[in-house]
Write a structure and sequence with these properties.
The protein has helices at about 15-20, 60-70, 90-105, 130-135, 140-155; strands at about 5-10, 25-35, 40-50, 85-90, 115-125. By secondary structure, it is α+β, with helices and mostly antiparallel strands.
Length: about 160
């Protein structure tokens, strides 16, 4: 059995976020749903929990993918639904995430995304999970998800299935 790590990602629609991480080598499972922060466990945001094998894809790559595939540089009216965040599960993971984010900022990459402590998870309804994989021809998929997958292909192709 693989030794999988997990990380929470949020910032945009969970259908989009799910599809982005599902195409990456080393990502073994993506749970789509709603995540909360431990300090406010009853306020949920759309997001995913990504289970990955760190010998196949590292946390820094996952974070860079995340920053490039949602509106990570600005606040907007939907931030109450789409928190631009990386949810950590322990203090060691928090330190690693903050270190990666600090190094990316030093390189001039701009973003509002922050590390936040994971609170709770509620899975999406079964019928909307694997949204892109079940029907990539949907208008929503073509309009919103395909451009994100193009970013992955253009910038992270060595990490795609």
């Amino acid at each position: 059995m693989e030794n999988l790590q997990k990380i929470g990602m949020g910032g945009g629609c969970h259908w989009c976020t799910e599809a982005v991480f599902q195409v990456l080598k080393g990502v073994k499972r993506v749970e789509q749903g709603y995540l909360s922060i431990d300090s406010d466990p009853e306020k949920f945001y759309e997001g995913v929990i990504v289970y990955f094998n760190s010998t196949e894809i590292d946390l820094k790559t996952l974070i860079k993918v995340h920053l490039q595939t949602h509106q990570s540089q600005e606040n907007h009216s939907l931030r109450t639904r789409y928190l631009s965040a990386i949810y950590y599960f322990d203090k060691t993971q928090k330190a690693r995430i903050e270190n990666i984010l600090d190094r990316l900022k030093e390189k001039g990459i701009k973003f509002i995304t922050r590390a936040v402590p994971f609170g709770k998870f509620r899975a999406s309804r079964e019928e909307i999970r694997n949204y892109y994989r079940t029907d990539p021809e949907r208008p929503f998929c073509k309009t919103y998800i395909n451009p994100k997958l193009k970013i992955i292909q253009d910038h992270f192709s060595k990490h795609t299935e």
